[in-house]
């Protein structure tokens, strides 16, 4: 993506579930089905579950507001891979910006069976029905759930720092929440990698520590995440 990356620090998320149809998914069912068949031929572990997609968003007075519709993962993936056609929609997701006691960031390397094998990310996931509470989309809960699923760290093992950093990069909107572990970086990395080694099919293969700008593996990270790390490390 060649678009500029906008960074906004906000204190609150106000995200709502607003079910409605998605013309792209309805009008391209055959193309979507063919694309999905080709994807799962190479990645048979992928599952075509239900996911949430932003259809509106705004930022005002330190609040990020957004509305989500629901679709299936096959349609979402085709929309992404076809270049985000149709009326504007956004992939709006929350990420767990995990830090150690001394402020080093820890990111995971995606396993071979995932859609983004080899890439290095903070723990995150596309919002799904489990994140819907009444008419709200609970992205703070999504952050803690994804962190525990991917790293084994439960909510009691981290402290949540106030506020969010929003990164807007074309049709991607990453909502970063800083979570701090009381463990130093090396111990935290070892703790998570022990969990990964014991899992039968972990989403991550290993952890990477970013303590300074030179530690950023730019070829294996998306541009918005690089921008966040530079922003957080004071560049």
From TrEMBL:
It comes from the Bacteria. InterPro entries: NUDIX_hydrolase-like_dom_sf (IPR015797). This is 8-oxo-dGTP pyrophosphatase MutT (NUDIX family). It comes from Labrys wisconsinensis. The lineage of its organism: Bacteria, Pseudomonadati, Pseudomonadota, Alphaproteobacteria, Hyphomicrobiales.
